[in-house]
């Protein structure tokens, strides 16, 4: 556990993914109680990991805030609620998607079918579904959390809705400090992907969220991965520029004929990606393709369960 500023501590947990860690944050309230923001994956023995950390706080964890439903942020929320007795708070939309993705036993096969419809070879699509099914065992989310709405305050922190990386992504802001989740990262950029049942324009949502961060001008952002961002405004502007360039590259990848999201992803992202990372590459390519459709730079064709995109001339 690392103290980042007075009343703000960071806990870093390992992950078995391409990105090998996630940060959780502990925020001290005036009465010396604590708010835990995000919980990592569900652990085989959560108490063995968390009990020594909790013992060093000097006060109880009374609230758990989930920024978004991705497994490395929500996966341990049920365990931590049981361990601490704390109430879990989560956005309404985010919890709906959490329950759909991690609580429905049919979601892995639906996800596999979705990617197959966007050109992912059937064996790879089936593996993606199987991997998601395996991951569900590490996601022990808290059922029926207390709804947390944008504009509310929790323990003195303002709740912000900043979608893009996830439709219902929430952040906390207080005294120029942004607890950012995965909304803004450095040196990597957050995945902005299109998934079944999601909002139709995640990239457009994300660019708007980055504009809000720039307008709010926090002095520091404590993020879900990597180091704190000391100039969030500049980083937000850099990421907007990155996606403008990616849109142009996506349009160029369409060439002169119809392409699936999978084919476009192979042009934008390197070959040899493992299936889990190829899933993110396809989802991000689809988000950019849909943005091109909305900008009238491309058209989408749905035919017999297969979706392709073509460049508008």
CATH level 4 superfamily: Ribonuclease Z/Hydroxyacylglutathione hydrolase-like
User: What structural class is derived from the secondary structure elements?
Assistant: alpha/beta
Order of helices and strands: EEEEHEHHEHHHEEEEEHEHHHEE
Q: Compute the number of helices.
A: 10
Beta percentage is 15-25%
Radius of gyration from CA coordinates: 20 Å
Strand order of the largest sheet: 1-2-3-4-5-6-7
Gross geometry: globular
* Helix proportion range: 25-40%
In total, the number of domains comes to 1
Q: Quaternary state, please?
A: single chain
- CATH fold node name: Metallo-beta-lactamase, Chain A
- The CATH architecture can be given as 4-Layer Sandwich
Number of strands: 14
Distance linking N and C termini: 55 Å
Mean pLDDT: 95
How is this fold's topology laid out?
Blueprint: E1 2-5, E2 8-14, E3 21-28, E4 34-37, H1 46-55, E5 61-66, H2 71-74, H3 77-84, E6 87-90, H4 92-103, H5 107-117, H6 122-135, E7 146-147, E8 153-154, E9 157-161, E10 170-174, E11 177-181, H7 202-216, E12 220-223, H8 232-253, H9 261-268, H10 275-294, E13 298-303, E14 306-311
Parallel strand pairs: 4-5, 5-6, 6-7, 11-12
Antiparallel strand pairs: 1-2, 2-3, 3-4, 8-9, 9-10, 10-11, 13-14
Helix pairs in contact: 5-6, 7-8, 8-10, 9-10
